[in-house]
């Protein structure tokens, strides 16, 4: 076996480096270092050639994470832009997990802007087989509609369990109460 078959291609190397940078960006975002995280995400995106089909899943993931960063920063228009890009490319490669995640994140933007009916419509696009719990820290992944309960207040958030709804209440209550008043 020659040494060229053991080394990775330039595309694979760039994707690997981009994923490393994106991982650091997610850590920075979690610590509240949003502007530094933004720089890391953009550096990661500069490494990826969008015309290479093998990079599409990586692009979808990074675009989705960049959207989450902007959502955390309250920059809703930018968040929506990146989530939409992620959803588009995820749809083209039929990545159901990323489609579901991007759609859920777009619904988060709509909820943050008190557009609860739009948020619910986005969530229901995945029915019945690829929906997500409304608790952003839930790790259950893709769920069926029958596995979820709808919030009794706003009727726009879906949860996999009472404990997930309870864990999410502090974040969700301002949107839920706004719709009820």
How does this structure look, described?
GO terms for molecular function: zinc ion binding. This protein has 181 residues and is mostly helical. It folds into two domains: 1-113, Alpha Horseshoe (Serine Threonine Protein Phosphatase 5, Tetratricopeptide repeat), CATH 1.25.40.10; 128-181, no CATH class. It has eight helices and two strands, in the order αααααααββα. Strand 1 (149-150) and strand 2 form a beta hairpin. Helix 2 packs parallel to helix 4 (56-73) and helix 5 (76-93) runs antiparallel to helix 6. It is globular and about 50 Å long. The chain starts with a helix and ends with a helix. Mean pLDDT is 84; it is low at 1-7.
Compact overview of the structure:
With 181 residues, the chain is mostly helical. The protein has helices spanning 3-6, 10-30, 34-46, 56-73, 76-93, 96-112, 116-124, 162-180; strands at residues 149-150, 158-159.
Number of domains: 2
CATH superfamily of the largest domain: Tetratricopeptide repeat domain
CATH class of the largest domain: Mainly Alpha
Specify the CATH architecture of the largest domain. Alpha Horseshoe
Order of H and E elements: HHHHHHHEEH
Observed structural traits:
181 residues, mainly alpha, Serine Threonine Protein Phosphatase 5, Tetratricopeptide repeat, 2 domains, two-stranded antiparallel ribbon, 66% helix, 2% strand, globular, disordered N terminus, TPR-like_helical_dom_sf, zinc, MYND-type domain-containing protein, TPR_rpt
């Amino acid at each position: 076996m020659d040494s060229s078959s053991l080394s990775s291609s330039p595309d694979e190397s760039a994707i690997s480096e981009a994923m490393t940078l994106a991982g650091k960006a997610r850590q920075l975002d979690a610590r509240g270092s949003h502007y530094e995280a933004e720089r890391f995400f953009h550096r990661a995106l500069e490494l990826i050639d969008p015309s290479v089909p093998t990079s599409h899943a990586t692009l979808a993931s990074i675009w989705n994470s960049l959207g989450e960063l902007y959502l955390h920063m309250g920059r809703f228009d930018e968040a929506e832009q990146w989530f939409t890009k992620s959803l588009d490319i995820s749809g083209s490669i039929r990545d159901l997990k990323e489609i579901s995640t991007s759609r859920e994140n777009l619904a988060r933007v709509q909820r943050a802007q008190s557009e609860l009916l739009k948020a619910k419509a986005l969530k229901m696009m995945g029915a019945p087989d690829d929906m997500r719990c409304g608790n952003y820290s839930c790790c259950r992944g893709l769920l069926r509609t029958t596995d979820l309960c709808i919030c009794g207040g706003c009727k726009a958030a879906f949860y996999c369990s009472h404990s997930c709804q309870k864990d999410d209440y502090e974040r969700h209550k301002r949107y839920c109460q706004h719709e009820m008043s």
